């Protein structure tokens, strides 16, 4: 291991291993193995194919990230529109501050019978939690190496289990706040048994120099349905690394949407494995970047069985010297006939200094499939701006209308009507606050 940031994380593990949840038994052995694997690989950098557009090693070496401290007492939410995006929706709320659960700030009460919600440490002795933590995706070897960092240092997170046929009565909101900077390593475990149904909101807010490392492991039983909406609006000095790994049973459905507004460097990874026939995965998102922001969307969807559907759409608006990345791969295994796999990414550049890198891929080993992929990068149409201005619309308003119309195609895919409207207002506010000007 030759990079300083990785050495710092290894030293943190040596200091804190005895205080981490599951310090004895199977998890202690799993943590040791994960740290060994991570140390051998080091932090990812541009020479690795899956990380060619995002140098996480360089991003983390700029700051010496020690473990985020325990934050006791009151927490003030950032004064941003994103902080109140879900406020009008009746929901259960679970709050994590600096990566640690805060029962005094959470409001998850009167859960329906058959819904189990715990902090991570309370379920690590259970078999279902062990299976989720130990699961790996062999077709994303380089990205799995960075998951090992989370496995070694994970301290807290949300563990949700919904029993067979049970529907969560209202959305569950996981709110992650960075109050004091430092590195936090969070692990969320979500198990929906056969026929279960849930909606989960996830928001990441905060200020200061921080590293947020989040892994969310999802298992959907046959005919289970999960809607997942993530909002990220952190400080420009934050590095955000989020990995979602989902295994879908027969006729299950995952609808996931992520809106990225804040953060200096972010990478969002989605690994979807179809394990049962007739399942669907809709993995979509939008991002609006400015200044020197960098956002990388990485997605691998593995059609390992026949008759499954995956649709992916990401749209982004980039201003200033910001940089966007989309890397997507749809894998169709032999015998996975009747697969419908599609992915598309569109980017709109509002500045000559903004940049977009896109690499959609199809890896197909079956012949009776419908698969497509594509990518476009462009700028605002001068003719469209002229047309709107000729109708008396000021240039700034004309540009905002065109940007909003561009993002709407993606935002219309948000799998919750009230959140759909809230995120559209957020996207419009990003421009109105002075962003989006070339």
Topology summary:
Elements: H1 4-16, H2 26-41, H3 56-61, E1 92-97, E2 100-101, E3 115-119, H4 127-134, H5 141-153, E4 158-162, E5 172-178, E6 182-192, E7 197-206, E8 210-220, E9 225-233, E10 238-248, E11 253-260, E12 265-274, E13 280-289, E14 294-303, E15 309-318, E16 323-332, E17 339-349, E18 355-364, E19 369-379, H6 382-390, H7 395-411, H8 417-432
Parallel strand pairs: 1-5, 4-6, 5-7, 6-8, 7-9, 8-10, 9-11, 10-12, 11-13, 12-14, 13-15, 14-16, 15-17, 16-18, 17-19
Antiparallel strand pairs: 1-2, 3-4
Helix pairs in contact: 2-5, 6-7, 7-8
Give a quick summary of the entry.
The protein is an alpha/beta fold and 438 residues long. 22% of the residues lie in helices and 38% in strands. A hairpin with a 2-residue loop joins strand 1 (92-97) and strand 2 (100-101).
Walk me through what this model shows.
By secondary structure, the protein is of the alpha/beta class. The chain has one domain. It has 8 helices and 19 strands. The chain has a 10-stranded mixed beta sheet, covered by helices on one side. The chain has a 9-stranded mixed beta sheet with strand order 3-4-6-8-10-12-14-16-18. Strand 1 and strand 2 form a beta hairpin. It starts with a helix and ends in a 6-residue tail after the last helix. The model has no long low-confidence stretch (mean pLDDT 91).
For the structure shown, list the relevant keywords.
nine-stranded mixed beta sheet; globular; alpha/beta; 438 residues; ten-stranded mixed beta sheet; 8 helices
């Amino acid at each position: 291991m030759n990079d300083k940031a990785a050495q710092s994380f290894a030293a943190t593990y040596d200091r804190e291993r005895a205080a981490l949840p599951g310090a004895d038994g199977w998890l202690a052995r799993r943590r040791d193995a994960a740290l060994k694997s991570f140390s051998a690989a080091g932090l990812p950098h541009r020479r690795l194919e899956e990380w060619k557009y995002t140098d996480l090693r360089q991003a983390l070496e700029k700051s010496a990230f020690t473990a985020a401290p325990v934050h006791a007492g009151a927490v003030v939410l950032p004064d941003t529109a994103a902080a109140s995006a879900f406020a009008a929706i009746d929901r259960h709320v679970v709050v994590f501050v600096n990566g640690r659960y805060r029962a005094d700030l959470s409001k998850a009460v009167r859960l329906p019978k058959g819904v189990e919600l715990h902090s991570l440490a309370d379920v690590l002795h259970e078999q279902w939690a062990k299976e989720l933590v130990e699961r790996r995706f062999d077709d994303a070897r380089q990205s799995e190496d960075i998951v090992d960092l989370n496995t070694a240092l994970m301290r807290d997170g949300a563990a949700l289990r919904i029993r067979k046929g049970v529907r969560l009565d209202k959305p569950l909101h996981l709110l992650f706040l960075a109050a004091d900077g430092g590195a936090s390593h969070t692990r969320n475990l979500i198990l929906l048994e056969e026929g279960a149904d849930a909606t989960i909101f996830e928001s990441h807010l905060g200020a200061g120099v921080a590293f947020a490392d989040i892994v969310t492991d999802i298992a959907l039983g046959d005919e289970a349905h999960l809607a997942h909406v993530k909002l990220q609006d952190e400080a420009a000095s934050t590095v955000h690394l989020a990995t979602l790994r989902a295994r879908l049973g027969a006729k299950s459905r995952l609808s996931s949407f992520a809106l990225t507004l804040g953060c200096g460097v972010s990478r969002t990874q989605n690994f979807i494995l179809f394990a049962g026939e007739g399942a669907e995965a809709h993995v979509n998102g939008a991002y609006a970047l400015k200044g020197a922001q960098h956002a990388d969307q990485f997605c691998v969807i593995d059609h390992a069985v026949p008759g499954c559907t995956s649709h992916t759409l990401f749209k982004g608006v980039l201003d200033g010297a910001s940089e966007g990345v989309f890397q997507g791969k749809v894998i169709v295994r032999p015998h996975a006939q009747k697969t419908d796999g599609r992915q598309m990414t569109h980017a709109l550049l509002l500045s000559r200094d903004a940049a977009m890198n896109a690499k959609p891929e199809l890896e197909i080993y079956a012949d009776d499939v419908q698969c497509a992929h594509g990518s476009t990068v462009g700028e605002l149409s001068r003719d469209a701006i002229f047309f709107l201005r000729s109708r008396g619309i000021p240039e700034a308003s004309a540009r905002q209308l065109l940007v909003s119309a561009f993002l709407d195609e993606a935002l219309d895919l948000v799998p919750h009507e009230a959140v759909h409207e809230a995120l559209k207002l957020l996207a419009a506010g990003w421009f109105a606050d002075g962003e989006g000007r070339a």
